[in-house]
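Sequence in, structure out.
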Amino acid sequence: MKAVIINGGYSVNSRLTGIEVEVEKLLSKTNTTYDKILVHKLPAEALITANYANPVIVENVKKVEDADVVILLTPVFKGAYSGILKTFLDLLPQKGFENKSVIPIAIGGSIAHLLSVDYALKPVVSILGATHVTNPVYVVDKLVTRVDDVYVIDGEITERLESTWKQVSRFASARV
């Protein structure tokens, strides 16, 4: 199984990066190969102008095409997933998530934003043809801390990520 992590955050120094690191540990522990896309590091003009032909965009869209599992990471602002993530999702083919499992992971300031993943992000994932979408893993930002250069993730979050990964693995096994 191959995964791609699409990080729709705005900085490599955010708590979302801490969650990404935890996801990478999980993928390594389960011997899952993966690629990573940091959307904010892609060419801004290509994203904003929807330049499908930009070589960097083409290369990163290919990473999504080659994956069995898509892991979407996003902060929640003003009740919605990040516009940074949206600029990349808009560049995917209409059925860019077809035959793939998608794991939406979001971080926000309070539990009040939990439903934003369901009403804002899931419809886009559905339109992109995802075969299997897990329940979102929503993280309240205070559950991710940073001590020096090390992120500390609350054990509950790690357990939820592991449980979600097991669900995806079972789904993938059943499809074979």
